[in-house]
Amino acid sequence: MLVDGPPRGGISRRSLLKIAGLGAAAGALPLSLSGCAGAGGSSGTTSLRWLANKPEVLAAFDELAAQYNASQSAVTIAHDGTQASIVPQFVRGAPPDVACYNYNLETSNYVRGGVLEDLAPLPEAKTINPAYQDLVTQYADFEGQTSVLPWSVTAAGVIYNVELFADNGVEVPTTYAELTAACQKFQAAGVTPIYTTAAATWSLLQGIWDYATGSGADVPAFFEEKLAADAGQGPTFLETFSKPWSDAIALRTYFNPDFPSRQYADGNLAMGQGKVAMYLQGPWALGEIAKTDPDLELGTFSLPMTEDPDDRAVRVNLDLALWVPTASRSVGDAKAFVQWLMQPDICNGYNQQNLAFSPIQGATGTTDPRTAGLAPYLEAGAIYQGAGTFVPNTIPLANYIQGALVDGDAEGMLRTLDADWDRLAKRSALS
Amino acid sequence: MSADAPVRTGTTPPAAPPPTRRSKSRVDTAFYVMLLPALALFTVLIVGPALAGMFFSVTNYVGYGEYSFIGLNNFLVLFTDPRILTSYGFTIGFSIVTVLLVNALGLLLAVGLNAKIRFKTALRGVFFVPMVVSGIVIAYVFNYIFSNSLPAVFTSLGIDAWGTSILANPSWAWVGVVIVTAWQAIPSALIIYLAGLLAIPEEVYEASSLDGASPWRQFTAITLPLVAGYVVINTVLGFKNFLNAYDIIVGLTDGGPGTSTYSVAMTIFTGFQTGDYAYQMANAVVFFVITVLISLAQLRLINGRGVSL
Question: Taking the mean position of all CA atoms in its chain, how far away is CA B83?
Fold first, then answer.
């Protein structure tokens, strides 16, 4: 899709864009020259644009850029924290020189399109836990290259109120039966067992849908087959996820009764007020809950969906990953910066401070007690990227999940999903 | 409402063009010059992009990169996509109900505000307010009212059946969307009706009351026929706006629960966010044709009424 190359005869749209781009560049030239004039003659310092725009940690990125700039004099890293879309940047032929960016189905297009440098030759690439490196290729692959290096892994599970569990004599459930028993116990005690915020559809997508399918079925294997199959072929959502998804929807009797109209903020508030036993949210919610009660004792466990405790796995995502576009203004300098960022003390340090897990082999992850419950799964490699993250955005999966939770029809929803997927595959919008 | 203002040579200012030009055309070129900026902007910002969109509807363009022509494939799939068909069903049904509600309440309020009542000017101002507030702001405020305030009120009154948000009910969420859309749209209909009512000469009413006509008879025999043209104007303008429903739905339900309140405009817009550009452009072309057909039908109605937009 993003293959860059010479126009194949005639004036294509691409070459028109290029001409327009040249004109724009020519127009910008005097400006950039005057911009450089203040830099003290021909110092020869290259400036690299480092795209790293995770909103919560912009200050940490500024700090890292300053550290690197102080540590050497060959290049200047200019930290770009703007929230702009990166697709147009690639189309214009002016992508960031190096990026530390969320890796998802959309960013995987740059891998598939082969517009990123192969980072495999860097010695740091070999220090990464292969289980995390595999997450990259689950979305896309380009000729077996290592186009992206994981830098920060976040893990999500069921956040629970430790005190409420202890007060009601409930242990962390390891099977689906234990989970429903725990819910009944809480309900009998007048505690909301599970708080759900269905008005914020994204919270269902990353929460109950991803957790239930991830612990109740083999999500990576399903999508590997599904993506390789032709339209109408391969495993179906219905046969693969019917059991766990029906069981997940059966849990709605343990939700707060007004769950269809509750928003994300309502969930964080209820959890912070200590009125709720369990909350299916990622680590980003911990800071929000702490705004209501900073001393609330919380933990996280993996949602069990079967009767075998070993089926439990944890939803992870490559919250931040490093890549260097082939169109980077200085590929060598960009790679040197990637190597610097991949140093254990820098990478591990960032992850420990931000409730995340370092992808470097043997690294100790976050020691925060609120997320420590997930660490064993990451160490054992019992991880998956959420089923929702594999479904192209053009299918309104989050809305389907909301509808299914409200009307209780699990199988109808999965059938719709199968039909949408096939229709999309037929249109060959899928690779 | 008189936007079509044909060139009226009679109103040409005294500063007439030089005699050399007058012989060629009786129309002053100044009028064309006046039209030029608007025409240029309209072409560049509306016609151009629309044509580009139509072009891409027969390709597999994802918004960037290479593309190839795939003929009418997008259109063929479109008509078998239940999600697309549902969005059309919802949007058209929602528009009809809203148009009826807006016109009924707009006319009612206009009659009330046209009567000899106290604080007439102040009240007119108050009813005008919803029109100047942004749709998304209204939607978020009403979202809070529907989701939190009203359930709390009904629960405290002991009506537990109404204790949940209407927006969370797949069968009734559309009613919430209709209420909020109507709330915002009524003022503009109201203004047009007020103008229409003011245009009816007072003598007609005086004469009919001398003949002993009751207020209701006056309304049905005088007011209604004389504002009929304005009903058509409000229907055409309102229907076109409601078909394009977007911001209020996003703020209220975001298409939910499920996809029960997903409007066509929302579906089209997802094409930009999800790389489904060409497919949704095809959807936009179909939607454009439908809107044009509906508008043409309504314009025929207008011509029959002897009024112009």
Answer: 24
H helix intervals, B133-172? 135-144, 150-156
- Asked if residue A137 belongs to a domain, the reply is yes
Which of A105, A197, A261, A391 to mutate: most B Cβ within 10 Å? A261
In a domain, B10, yes or no: no
Average pLDDT, chain A: 86
Per CB-CB distance under 8 Å, the chain A contacts of B62 are 1, 429
What is the C-alpha to C-alpha distance for residues A261 and A272, in angstroms, rounded to an integer?
A: 19
Given an 8 Å threshold on Cβ–Cβ distance, is B254 in contact with A201? yes
With CB atoms and an 8 Å threshold, state whether A393 touches B275.
Answer: yes
Rounded to two decimals, the ipTM of the complex is 0.81
Kindly state the average pLDDT of the residues A123-139: 93
Q: Look at chain A and report how many structural domains it folds into.
A: 2
Q: Containing domain of residue A372, as a range?
A: 46-154+318-380
Q: How far apart are CA B253 and CA B140, in angstroms?
A: 10
Q: Is residue B265 part of a domain?
A: yes
What six digits make up the tokens of A80?
Answer: 């770009």
The whole-number pLDDT of residue A44 equals 60
Q: In chain A, whose CA is at the least distance from the CA of B148? A: A261
In the numeric block, which tokens belong to residue B59?
């390709």
Domain with A114 in it: what CATH number? 3.40.190.10
| Torsion over CA: A202, A208, A209, A215 (sign) | positive
Higher pLDDT, B236 or A312: A312
Q: Which pLDDT score is estimated for A27?
A: 36
Burial (CB < 10 A; 0-12, 13-18, 19+), residue A255, is buried
Residue B1 lies in a domain: no
CATH number, position B168: 1.10.3720.10
Q: Based on the fold, state whether residues A220 and A269 are members of the same structural domain.
A: yes
Nearest to A190, CA basis, from A216, A167, A212? A167
What three-state secondary structure class fits B179?
helix
- Residues A204, A342, single domain; the answer is no
Q: Is residue A172 part of a domain?
A: yes
First to last CA, chain A: 10
Interface test with A, best of B74, B155, B269, B276 (most A CBs within 10 A): B276
Query: Beta strands A98-101 and A276-281: pairing type?
Result: unpaired
What's the domain range around B131?
75-305
Q: Is residue B78 a contact partner of residue B282, using CB atoms and an 8 Å limit?
A: yes
